[in-house]
Amino acid sequence: MTVNTMRIIDRWVGIPLCFLISPFCWLADLLRGARKKTPDTSRTLFIELSEMGSALIADPAMRKLRLEASADIYFVIFKKNYKSLDILKTIPEDHVFKMKADHFFGLIADVFRFLVWCRKKKISTVIDLELFSRFTALLGFFSGARSRIGFTSLHDEGLYRGNLVNKTVRYNPHVHVAINFVSLVNRAMGAYQNAYATVAVPDEELQLAKAEIPVSATEQVRNKIRQLYPGWNNEHVLLLNVNASDMLPQRRWPPENFGVVGKQLLQQFPNIIIIMTGSPAEKDYVQAVTDMISDPRCINSSGFFTFDELVPLYDISSCMLTNDSGPAHFAAVTKLKVFVLFGPETPHLYLPLGGNAEPFYLGLPCSPCVSAANHRKTSCIERPCITGIHPALVLNRLNTYLSQGK
Predict the structure, then answer these.
(1) Fewest CB within 10 angstroms: 60, 168, 187, 332, which?
(2) What domains lie within the chain, and their CATH numbers?
(3) What DSSP designation does 372 have?
(4) What is the DSSP letter of 332?
(5) What number of CA atoms fall less than 13 Å from residue 88's CA on the CB side?
(6) Residues 21-41: pLDDT tens digits?
(7) Are 275 and 235 in contact (CB under 8 A)?
(8) Beta carbons within 10 angstroms of residue 125's beta carbon
């Protein structure tokens, strides 16, 4: 299913279902004393289906719950996004339910499988990381968990999903999403008792763990680079990630801008090569940019590296220029310097954790135009927030960084 189809279903099917089920939910919570009892976090399920990057942003929150509450952590995510959750291996694979979303009837079948799985795992608490999804609220209720923690709009209008979440946290659109995620965990651990997250989240609680990369994995990636570019003599590797997911295609910086940047960097720095990254499905799009750069030291690697090889690739590279998308967050588990182009989103909420990410962001009066309130959908076609980032601005910063011997 397409992202837009999911949005339509979530609205036109999700809202009526939440309305119809809410009375039964209220009665069940009343009989179980769910709203008064402290959550039992011993077997906690996190729900984050659709965003690969968010699975990494949520990692500090999950580690906090495991460390401070000795919780056994579980997770449900769309199967196509699972690899992002596996990067840090915080959650064992047998604790993860991978939900298929290729077509509607397959999704419905997996929902019933999920309900059985939750009862086998004896899930006691659900923490819904999604921003006001009715589908995940329904999953949380039908999981059978007594405590269901998630975001509420509180006094804001809209974003209705009934009372399926019985321990709410007011979503704050003015702080980083990672802070909101940790606030959900604080609520689960009883740090505060109402929807206002009154407990501070210090910077040390937002530290992202680094991936453990075997030497063999690094050497394998080096050998594959030599397959792509036999003349490679350990020159610095610069990565360009020119595509972005179909969830928000407006995040894509114009491909010709990547072409200008790549061509000029290769002309100025003889000691670098450029590797263009992407999935097999993105190969043609990436090849078009590779052709614009038109230099033998620029190689299209779309589909060549497996997902498991991306982290070692990031680890041995000098820097990456990328659209605001999953790879920016995947790279955050390494020491790689990442330059992220933000347009309809904002780095104030979604800058990758880890301390090595630097944004390019114009901050126009209309920015950000996507948010939880519109389920991250925009109809803007001109996209001046992203097209207005001039290649000269990006080149100046990258020139400075690379000139410093990085």
Answers:
(1) 168
(2) 3-206 (3.40.50.2000), 215-403 (3.40.50.2000)
(3) G
(4) G
(5) 23
(6) 999 999 999 989 888 889 999
(7) no
(8) 25
- 357, 328 Cβ separation under 8 angstroms: yes
CA dihedral 140, 350, 312, 305 (to 10 degrees): 80
Q: What pLDDT does 405 receive?
A: 65
Integer angstrom CA distances of residue 181 from 116, 123, 151, 192: 27, 19, 9, 15
Angle (nearest 5°) at CA 177 between 173 and 179: 100
Tokens read off for 86: 């596996």
- At 162-178, the pLDDT tens digits run 999 999 999 999 999 99
- Cα gap 240→260, rounded to integer Å: 12
**Residue 9 has what pLDDT?**
87
Cβ proximity of 367 and 378 under 8 Å: no
Are 63 and 90 in contact, with CB atoms under 8 Å apart?
Answer: yes
CB 353 within 8 A of CB 56: yes
Q: Give the list of residues 6+ apart from residue 105 with CB closer than 8 angstroms, or none.
A: none
> Percent of the chain scored above 90 by pLDDT?
84
Q: Which SS3 state, helix, strand or coil, does residue 175 take?
A: coil
**pLDDT recorded at residue 85:** 93
